[in-house]
């Protein structure tokens, strides 16, 4: 397609008037097409990047301090924190191989806490918005839907009464296995709304009761099978009159300092050196995008050969979580926390 300068340059004074008008019309139509296309691209970018503009965890400034309470009850660990003047309750369910300790940073009050980057940011966002937060560890590697569901129902009821939160709306968020668990739990606990992350829920194998809570699906459409199941379940919920919404999260490129921006305790020098290893080993393409999931590529062996993580071995899971997040196939994410909590808050009344 010729440029506009070439098109306009072809309009000679000796041409008939109607020819000039025709060329002007073509030029105007072309300009409109370019503007519309550009607008679509610009508008589509933030949605496709799914919160990448907020990739730096340090960009989320909060006066909130982690001060969790820890208790062992009914064979499992409970960790919680209640902010001043709470306005709602949030129950959190981790994914397979997770634990409640992933949601809070290590501290004197919680020496076994891990503080994985995505989990901790979800809690910080929750506390900032005055949600009282409760996380419970599953009894086994993943959540089950029998005795464990009854156990968690009892724990939530006990905890709410203990902290005198009975008058507040209750919400829940579960990721992966925790998403299936929350979807089933919501059929028996009165949540004002729920968020199911990187999971389609148990809807194909359960009776959806009247009054089931509004449901938000946060997922990564690179997992096409799950995306289709989510679409089907959203339609099934809509047919029952249940409000539903989805948030899609796509891949984004790594940058030299991204890991230090996202992971407390990982310095910029190490982050840059890790990025260089990923580039040299071609774990990322020329544009910085992950070629595969962080669980699959042999990045740990590569950085071990460079002796980069000898003093930072406790951050391996933190790094892998961020690599998984960048690949955007199946990982917990805090990047759309504002949207998630706006969903919760919009269904409290």
UniProtKB/TrEMBL annotation:
Keywords: Membrane, Transmembrane, Transmembrane helix. The chain crosses the membrane at residues 23-42. PANTHER family: SECRETION-REGULATING GUANINE NUCLEOTIDE EXCHANGE FACTOR (PTHR35128). This is Uncharacterized protein LOC105040561 isoform X1. The lineage of its organism: Eukaryota, Viridiplantae, Streptophyta, Embryophyta, Tracheophyta. The gene is LOC105040561.
